[in-house]
Design brief:
Length: 135
């Protein structure tokens, strides 16, 4: 099973977010143990670093990128993704971009806590808990 994981699921684990950590951490484990092929958008890594910038020094950024890329495959960002996302753009260009990338890599599911942001997705969208139940 191939899954594209939204940035918020990654941040749930990195920030140990109460109420979300356990399920999001389980998604990491599912990918790390090979029960699913986990992908993240190339856009997610700079977004994560930007969001966490106050807590990160250059050495910690390097460690974080290494940790993420050991567990998840990174989906490159192509011109076709940018154009497809712009063509299908509704409220959130970044979400449209994730949908475009998920379609291109033929992901079985997108994993996010914000399912309502992906209501128009042609790729199945699951929350972390729904993925856990499915497996």
């Amino acid at each position: 099973m191939k899954i594209l994981i939204d940035t918020n699921v990654i941040l749930d684990v990195l920030y140990d977010r109460e109420g979300f950590f356990d399920d999001s951490s389980a998604v990491w484990d599912i990918c790390q143990t090979g029960k699913a092929d986990g992908y993240i958008s190339a856009l997610s890594i700079p977004n994560i670093v930007y969001i966490m910038r106050k807590e990160l020094d250059p050495q910690r950024i390097q460690q974080l990128v290494e940790q993420i890329t050991m567990i998840f495959k990174v989906v490159d960002l192509r011109e076709s993704d940018l154009k497809d996302a712009a063509d299908s753009f509704s409220d959130d260009y970044e979400d449209a971009l994730h949908i475009s990338q998920a379609k291109r890599i033929r992901a079985d599911h997108m994993i996010t806590r914000n399912v309502r942001h992906f209501e128009n997705s042609t790729v199945s969208v699951l929350t972390p808990s729904q993925l856990i139940e499915k497996l």
